[in-house]
């Protein structure tokens, strides 16, 4: 059975690498900072999405779908 999180993830399992953070004060602090700033982060993202809907994609935006496509294309050609 596939978990909901893995079905919703835009990053395929083969690109995911475990990264252990236990015991590292820096990496343990990050979730606390994000939790404290969650409202501000959500507000900024909602504002960004509203601008995107109103004005379209910014001229210099990153095309994540294109990046993933190029990665898969490179992986396919390297397996030949």
What's the arrangement of secondary structure elements?
Blueprint: H1 4-8, H2 25-36, H3 38-55, H4 64-78
Question: What share of residues are in beta strands?
Answer: under 5%
Specify the helix fraction band: 55-70%
Distance between the termini: 31 Å
The dominant shape is flat
Q: How many individual helices?
A: 4
Q: Average pLDDT, to the nearest integer?
A: 82
Q: Give the total of beta strands.
A: 0
Succession of helices and strands: HHHH
Structural class: mainly alpha
Tell me about the largest β-sheet.
Answer: none
Radius of gyration: 18 Å
* Low-confidence blocks of residues: 1-6
If you had to describe this structure to a student in words, what would you say it looks like?
The protein is an all-alpha fold. It has helices at 4-8, 25-36, 38-55, 64-78. The chain is built from 4 helices and no strands. Residues 1-6 have low confidence and may be disordered. The radius of gyration is 18 Å and the shape is flat. The two termini are 31 Å apart. Helix content is 62%, strand content 0%.
Descriptive terms for the model:
flat, 4 helices, 80 residues, mainly alpha, disordered N terminus
Q: What's the short version?
A:
By secondary structure, this protein is mainly alpha-helical.
């Amino acid at each position: 059975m596939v978990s909901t999180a893995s079905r919703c993830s835009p990053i395929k399992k083969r690109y995911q690498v475990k990264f252990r953070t236990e015991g590292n004060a820096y990496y343990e602090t990050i979730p606390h900072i994000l939790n404290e700033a969650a409202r501000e982060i959500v507000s900024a993202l909602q504002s960004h999405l509203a601008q995107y809907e109103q004005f379209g994609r910014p001229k210099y935006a990153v095309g994540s779908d294109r990046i993933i496509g190029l990665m898969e294309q490179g992986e396919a050609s390297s397996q030949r």
